[in-house]
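Structure tokens please, single chain.
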Amino acid sequence: MSDARHAFGGDWTEVKLAAISAYSQFFTRAIQNQFDLWYVDPFAGTGERTAVENSGGLFEAEPISQIEKQYPGSAARALSIEPPFAHLRFGDALQRHARALERLVGLFPNRDAKVVHDNANDFIQRMFSTGAWASSASGRGTPRALVFLDPYGMEVKWRTLEVLAACEKADVWFLANMKAATQQLARDGRKLNADKRRSLREYFGCDDWEERFYSKTESPDLLGLMEQSKRSASRSEIADFHRERLGSLFRYVSTPLSLAVGGLDDYFLLYCMSNNPSDKARALISRGAESVITKYRQASRHRSALQEGGQRPSY
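Here you go.
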């Protein structure tokens, strides 16, 4: 596989990227003459997505075969938004992804677009805790960012979200990987080792999750009574707790766009969040975000239903 290829995701990925693009266009149109607009994507990958798809079959009167297709990823789409972002910053920790991003950015010589080869959390924390982002100044010409946090798993640290909330100048779209979080939450509480607890603390920003998600009972054994801990929380209850925690940082947290995979809801939840101190600005953000989420919620369900007759996803 060459450096330019980045295979991941499925139909749900296209829904996610279409939603981000739709909000990006809303964002630049709504405030282009008021602020210095930035797009920041620290998990940009190669900027494009490779998918292996089936072709042919009975209805096409052709033998079934597999073909590779290239789709624009978040970076390619952001670079093509009109009206444009004034500045674009893409990042990825993998060197081959960063090289592919550099080639993509090179196709847009008139854009202030740069690639940061760094850990996503370090990239975001460093950028948004300094300079104009940390300043209390506001008004025409101050920076405003659309930040897209699209991790593979649970890589986004709570501290990263704290920094973005504290700057009060970012509309944050965050893909919450509920499948990964639920897998860390073992059914049997005795299997919650130190690594799992550390990972979940980073994800939820607290230790309260254990009390909320697990029920403790006592059962007799040869030595007397033994305490057992079993996870009693459903995936939706876990998701509700996570949204509650996000709401402790951001004044606005959207209803989630549930990205269904293989007919199963809530594998991934896409949120828009803002800590803008202006009630008027948050109302505008909410109007744009909820409109996008409503539009693409139905698209997610439709695309997932098309998958149900095929192989279940492996991620």
